[in-house]
Amino acid sequence: YEVVRELGAEEVRWFYREDRKTWKPFIGYDSLRIELAFRALGSGGGAREPAAVEPVCVRSGLYEVDVASAESYPVYWNQTEKIPVMRGQWFIDGTWQPLEEEESNLIEQEHLNRFKGQQLQESFDMEISKPVDGKEAIHSLKLSRNHVDWHSVDEVYLYSDATTSKIARTVTQKLGFSKASSSGTRLHRGYVEEATLEDKPPQTSHIVFVVHGIGQKMDQGRIIKNTAMMRDTARKVEEKYFSNLATHVEFLPVEWRSKLTLDGDTVDSITPDKVRGLRDMLNSSAMDIMYYTSPLYRDELVKGLQQELNRLYSLFCSRNPEFEEKGGKVSIVSHSLGCVITYDIMTGWNPVRLYEQLLQKEEEELEESWISYEEQRLLEELYITKQRLREIEERLHELKASTISKPPVLKFKVENFFCMGSPLAVFLALRGIRPGTSGSQDHILPRTICNRLLNIFHPTDPVAYRLEPLILKHYSNISPVQIHWYNTANPLPYEHMKPSFLNPSKEPTSAPDTESASAAPSPTTSPVMVRRHYGESITNIGKASILGAASIGKGLGGMLFSRFGRSSATPQTMETGKDGPEGDEKKATTVGTPPLPHSSSGFLEPTMELEHRIDFELREGLVESRYWSAVTSHTAYWSSLDIALFLLTFMYKQDQEETDKSNLDTI
Asked: Residues annotated as region Disordered (predicted)?
């Protein structure tokens, strides 16, 4: 039989507690290494200094545990609250939650003093006729608020010594109930499963930098919470759909805003006091867009994000040296204004160049006007000096020829750039980018810089815009690709989804006051079907319940959400059957553009298609108010299972291609 001895490192389990919730166990690999570090710390005792123990890397390398202070802290981002960790030796029956460390240590000490070297009886050798109730406690230990009774070596119960518990105990015992079954909590020594080094997290093959948009000044920890939500959602999806792969995707938050000083508190000092709360909210959110369009602070924002991306990448590679050797990939997920700044970093776009061109024009105009001889001589000298300066700069650039010659530079190649709720298209349009004739992504983002650009948006997100019509104009009349629901069985792979037309011709900008004005096309399960519109389907579900809130804001909606009017459709349900050649003609013709080449099925001719689709739209919930979702949708991306599955589908693409082929055959 087993003999009572000190607990082995694999029987002890370490726990951590986040946000003052319950204690969560570390996985075996982590717990075992923390315990070994803890024992190394203890072994250096005596008169000498305690041995210095290096922090232990835990939770897929995202956190470190300092055993001496019993705290855990994140490696890649700053967090004000430290995460307490705890050594579990005695556990509560059923929940396997650890007893507080002080009590646990006292019980363990008492247990070893009393029973060390004694044999543990096998459960089946026990006298079945004699349950715990009948047995007297062979040993007892008084703690501050509780006491512990040992009925045998491995039958240990904890009782509360609060007055109410004592009264309850006397009553139940008088009624004939045993002390143990009525108010005791059974304790177990050692964790339910042994910790092994095999129980370790898979290797990271792909890292994703998550970049926040505006409003970060208002709530500095928000991006860390959002990334944690995205990471947890992705873990669920990985377990369900990608558990056969031996690698995993890691999400790291890029918090670039808090380190910037910008104008100090000048803007705060000029803000009037009335409705201060609302003004402060605007100052700490919308103000970032104004900073970004200011030539004074734009560079600071760009450098802030660029340095943080490079710092995180270098730190990750130094802690995971095999990542680069094994061809690890990097993707970026950006939200809102973060998309624009990330895009500018990757492409090296800079408004100063536009300004220089403007100055040059002015110089040429100045030369043509009448000026004195002295002024002319100085201008010529200035012109020659500038010319010389430009030549020297060009030669210097040639010498410094790097992989991506345009500044600012990232230390890694971006595999996928996912934009969420992104106003990037507006910024590009205002910089003069116009639709071209080739369907290549290179028109807005060269493939040499970033392999794949994907623009994800919620249909009612007021900050998000489409990118595809900036490459080929007629795509404004082709619906974005619908992102599959998380639980769709055998979804059609995105690259096999054919483009389908939005039914109607475009409407004028101001939305007329009809129910269909606020309606946008509904999702369809298959791109072949004509898209139905919400105007009528919502009405049928129940006007009063759903549109009650929306109708209050009807007038306001006309002004605020004229964007929806622009992209929305005239109601035409499946039953009207306007599908012949005339229907097709209507579908293809937009105001001011000629009819497009299309086949009778309503799909585009291949010559007019994009190489890869870029705009992907979340499916709208049927029972949500469009006006309410316009307010909430801009921040609803983080915890969406549909988005997590979408991101992982593209990041695991190469690993999954073989399985996809077999799925296609079955389709």
From this structure: 497-529, 567-603
